[in-house]
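Look over this entry.
=====
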Amino acid sequence: MALIGLFNKAKNRTGEMSFWGHIDALRGHLIRCVIAILILAIVLFCFPEFLFDTIIFGPLNNDFITYRAFCKLSHLLNLGDQLCFGNYTFKLQSLGLADQFTSLMWIAFLGGLILASPYILWEIWRFIKPALHDVEKKASLGFIISSTFLFITGVLFSYYIIVPLAINFLGNYQVSKMVENNFTMDSYISTVTTLTLASGIVFELPIIVYFLTKFNLITPEFMRKYRKHAVIIILVAAAIITPSPDVTSQMLVAFPLYFLYEASIFVSRFVIKQKVKA
């Protein structure tokens, strides 16, 4: 009853919610988001073998789908076994007493966050929905769907393409035959999660460009003018992400990034046309 009374007092005579009313409403949305993340994290926490053996350590298995696909592609392109990889000999070690337990908690939390991302975006949309017009509501719903799709696509792209290529290079790289490759579990998990989350954020580029164009910070003409520079940056990024010397694996990373750039130009042009119509 006290909460209802506070909510009612948060509205002024015009029916608009006051600042503290917005804060109270936002708190409710944030609490529901946290609850959703925790519930999913707890569920994942109860299945450590699936979470680690199947998901996290999946790219270490010789029969991982990416390795089989790359090997078939290599034979299809008459490259022999150049793209056939995945036979790892290094071992993962847990050096701290609580490392495995804390790693399980961290991965379960990240998994819950990723799985709950559509719901989190929906809660954000529910929070801003009352302040939007009908046209803006439709656009906001499209934004939520697009953002979720791009983020999940980026995560999957990293997990199935970038992570296996990075592990293949870094796991087999040696400065000397006298040094044996044995990595800590924390190091491996950090590499996988960092690449995966970073890719999910990079794939949000069209959404970022949308808002930058909205605020007149970027234009499609600007992006077209510096397209050549963007291509160079993309190729360098692909070379860093996939340190393997073969060009084929680098192109597999570079093409999607370039497609995102071209899609961002289209998004920027669309925003400018909408501004002209308005």
About this structure: The chain has eleven helices and two strands. The first helix runs from residue 2 to 9. The longest strand covers residues 91-93. The radius of gyration is 23 Å.
